[in-house]
Every structure is written in structure tokens, then in C-alpha cells.
Amino acid sequence: MHSSTQESSEDQSSRYATLSRLMEPAARDRLTRIALVHSDRARDVENILLRKAQEGLLQQKVSESNLISLLNQLKDEKKETKIIFNRQAFDED
């Protein structure tokens, strides 16, 4: 069990180092602050950035404005998914 915890922390530190290379310091700081409040949203952004880097789609470091636009895109995508329950009323005759 200790080894899996150690592997997890190594993966996390490797992930952090990779993201630090991909992002400008201001963008990385903003993402860190977002992670304190919305860890799931920050994790989604990290996954997107890592995937884009693996595919070679990042030509330059991610700036703070790029990060904000990516966050807005994610927010808009999340808004589109809504579940509406139409409950039928019972007649009380």
C-alpha cells in the first residue's frame, strides 16, 4: 500500500512539473488557486493541457488569457448538459 501512495505522489509531481513547463507562471498560479475551490474543474483543465501537449497542439506556453478562455469553454460545455424531470401529477379523485 505504501508503494501505491509513493507512485501516486511521483505521478502528481511529474504532472506538476510537466504543467509548469507548459504554462506561464501567472497561468499556473491561477490554476493552482482554482484548484483550491474547484478541484474537478482544475483537473479537467490539466488533463486537456496535457493531452494537447502530447498531441503537439501547444505551440507556445499557455498564458493566463488562454487559461481563462479554456475555463470559459469548459463552463459553457457544463451549462449545456441539463436534466429536466417532467413529473406527472396524480389525480386525487
TrEMBL record:
<dbReference type="Pfam" id="PF01984">
    <property type="entry name" value="dsDNA_bind"/>
</dbReference>
<dbReference type="GO" id="GO:0005829">
    <property type="term" value="C:cytosol"/>
</dbReference>
<dbReference type="GO" id="GO:0003677">
    <property type="term" value="F:DNA binding"/>
</dbReference>
<dbReference type="InterPro" id="IPR002836">
    <property type="entry name" value="PDCD5-like"/>
</dbReference>
<dbReference type="GO" id="GO:0005634">
    <property type="term" value="C:nucleus"/>
</dbReference>
<dbReference type="InterPro" id="IPR036883">
    <property type="entry name" value="PDCD5-like_sf"/>
</dbReference>
<comment type="similarity">
    <text>Belongs to the PDCD5 family.</text>
</comment>
<protein>
    <recommendedName>
        <fullName>DNA-binding protein</fullName>
    </recommendedName>
</protein>
